[in-house]
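User: tokens in, sequence out, please.
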């Protein structure tokens, strides 16, 4: 992907540099689906990145920093319908560790479990980040997310594949509990992050 219409710098394209909004969308479409975001930045006639490109990139960075500045799941309590061998090494709370070294997993025959985050009070968000524990491979094929509303679960998102990094962005949701349902997996899941 290039920040400009083509791979090379042309002064006539200074007004056609991708906007910060477009770059954020591309970030969610690539990194948010477990891929790399390789952005071409062609040097101008001075051998530098053009001022218009730099301005767009700086605002893109500012927006990403603002979007991910607070993980509303930090401090939450995680519970699961099943924990592998009832062993703390695979506890639901591991998805909140944020270090990528711990993970939640289920017994081998439990392939469609649920994981609930109790946020400790109402929180409003529109992005959910999920990561699998990749040393064990990509395991989850499909999943759904629910919010606790008026005494019942209401689905607000679903998807296929999680892998190294899945970002789901949608309408604002206000809830005090979020449930992740693994709806299809050939083997037991191994989840490293849910935020």
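Assistant: Sequence out:
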């Amino acid at each position: 992907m290039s920040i400009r219409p083509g791979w090379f710098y042309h002064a006539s394209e200074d007004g056609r540099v991708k906007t910060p909004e477009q770059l954020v969308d591309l970030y969610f479409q690539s990194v948010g689906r477990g891929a790399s975001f390789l952005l071409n930045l062609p040097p101008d006639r001075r051998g530098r990145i053009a001022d218009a490109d730099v301005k767009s990139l700086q605002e893109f960075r500012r927006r990403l920093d603002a979007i991910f500045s607070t993980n509303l799941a930090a401090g939450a309590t995680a519970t699961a319908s099943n924990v592998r061998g009832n062993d703390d090494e695979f506890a639901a709370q591991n998805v909140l560790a944020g270090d990528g070294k711990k993970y939640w997993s289920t017994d081998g025959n439990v392939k469609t479990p649920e994981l609930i985050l109790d946020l400790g009070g109402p929180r409003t968000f529109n992005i959910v980040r999920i990561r699998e524990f990749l040393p064990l491979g990509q395991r989850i094929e499909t999943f759904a997310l629910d919010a606790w509303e008026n005494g019942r679960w209401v689905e607000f998102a679903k998807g296929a594949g999680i892998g190294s990094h899945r970002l789901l962005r949608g309408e604002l949701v206000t809830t005090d509990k979020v449930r992740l349902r693994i709806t299809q997996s050939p083997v037991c899941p191994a989840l490293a992050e849910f935020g």
